[in-house]
Specification:
alpha+beta; Aminopeptidase; 5-stranded mixed β-sheet; 4 helices
Length: 131
């Protein structure tokens, strides 16, 4: 079993969209009403977002397990002058069948390393509030 984490490329945008849509279905369907969650599950829109994030140089990582794209992380260095040395981790998602394998810890370690390399001394982690 081989696990690889790397910066995502434009060609990965479709896989990233699939990961986020499927992981949202798995993770949030029991806590977010269907009419609300469906607003976030448009794969084409998600693919376009990831293409834009990658083109803009945001930190977008893809996790690949035995050749299968299975996880992602999305972060960036804050642009606010007051938060000059701070980064934000917006998303870490994995397909449900990869939960509990320690992969999120590995991708989090890579995100933190990249943020440190970009001069961040601390980072905030975004999370979903129950709706």
């Amino acid at each position: 079993m081989k696990y690889e984490i790397r910066r995502a490329m434009i060609d990965d945008a479709e896989s990233l969209a699939n990961i986020i849509v499927e992981s949202w279905r798995s993770a949030y369907s029991s806590i977010i009403p269907e009419n609300e969650i469906s607003k976030f599950l448009d794969k084409q829109r998600r693919q376009q977002q990831f293409e834009r994030f990658i083109q803009d140089g945001e930190i977008v990582l893809i996790g690949i397990y035995d050749g299968i794209p299975c996880g992602l992380a999305f972060a960036n260095k804050d642009n606010d002058e007051k938060l000059e040395e701070c980064g934000s981790i917006y998303s870490i998602y994995f397909l449900e069948e990869y939960w509990g394998k320690g992969l999120a810890t590995k991708i989090m370690d890579v995100v933190i390393s990249i943020l440190k390399d970009e001069g961040c001394e601390r980072a905030s982690l975004w999370f979903m509030k129950r709706m």
